[in-house]
Amino acid sequence: MKDNLIGQEYGPLQGVRVMLTGVAFAGPFAARWLGDMGAEIIKIEIPGAGDTSRIGRRVGEAGVVPKWISLGRNMNSFEFNMNFDKAPDSKQVFEDLVKQCDIWINSVPNIGKHGATDELAFAANPKLVIVHVTGYGLPENGGDERLLGRPSVDPVAQAFSGLAAMQGMPDGPFLTANPILADIVTAHQAACGALAAYISAQHTGKGQVVDSSLYESAAYLMSYHWCSQLNGEGLYHRSGPLNQLWRPFGYYECRDGEWVAVGVWGLGIWQKFCDLMGVSVEDFPYMATCGQEDPDKVAQMDAIWQKYLDSHTAVEVEAAFMAAGMPTSKLNNAEDAYRHPHWQARGDFIKIKDVTSGDEFVDIATSPKFNGTPCTVYKGAPLLGQESERVMKDILGYDDDRIEALKESGSVAALLITK
């Protein structure tokens, strides 16, 4: 554990320092999650370029990119050239920096080909945890040579993993599971893997490499279903807004054209649902109807349920299910969630001040919540290279002459932000 030298101290990961190399989305989002929980994030950015999320649809007079405000929160930007072939002095900077870090999260493909290898990092810091986020995994753990090192993005990962095969209407096109689900679940698996390896390193004194791929993370989401499918239960297929195994379970349109989600599953919930529909469980047995084993019973209940939906608004259906103690929710969009009293009461939205414009932007608060070491978002996304000088002076201990030499050699940005 280290003192946070350039950021505030908060959260359960206070004192953990993370070096991040890579651009949107999975790698940086993994680091952002750790940063929300108190880790100090040093984001390495190519001098003069930075993260691709800095480029996008802009809003307001200042032309701010909201997605960068969110992705880059709690991060510290260090403009540093990690191509040792072009900037030989960068090798020593890299070694000095990894000595001061606990975790290195990388999503740059083949980053070691220009000198920043795992071996060099471990030689400098044997306790370092290195997390590589890739499309298809690292070669040392096996794989098809045609795929290893190949680029991937979220919809490609969803396709290769099989996740996309379960999205969409039965007779319509395949759909992407939004928002960029493969990227997000990979980010969380990478962050969890980083923390598990970090705990191990504290016990053993030895770091390790964590191999987190987009397709395997997406496939892990389906282990519950695939265990059934690959062991004789049958092939899962696209079922649109409904569940393939249980009903009613999914999204349903109501009288007013609004949609509601319900989840009828389990004997107790089935009894409550039958009571609400005015029928008996004896006439509509659980597995025959809810479990869809008897097509005639399913068709009869579908007709009863549809009649109920046709005569009630989404708010009325939600209220009736809630009163009966059954899972339900009206479908919310971002504006609905922002106005909802439950979200507001739990403090699920925060405002982040943009360093460029000074304007405040609404974002989702940190999650999960900790009652002993609360998390926070203490700063918005940084300007490119905003903390470069502080990283070199406060963390690496470089003096002005050393910094000037690195600027002249091209290892760090020639113009550093000092405010």
UniProtKB/TrEMBL annotation:
Keywords: Transferase
Listed InterPro entries: CoA-transferase_III (IPR050509), CoA-Trfase_fam_III (IPR003673), CoA-Trfase_III_dom3_sf (IPR044855), CoA-Trfase_III_dom_1_sf (IPR023606)
SUPFAM superfamilies xrefs: CoA-transferase family III (CaiB/BaiF)
Endpoints of the signal sequence: none
Transmembrane segments: none
Molecular function GO terms recorded: transferase activity
Family designation: Belongs to the CoA-transferase III family.
Name listed for the protein in its UniProt record: CoA transferase
Organism: Eggerthella guodeyinii
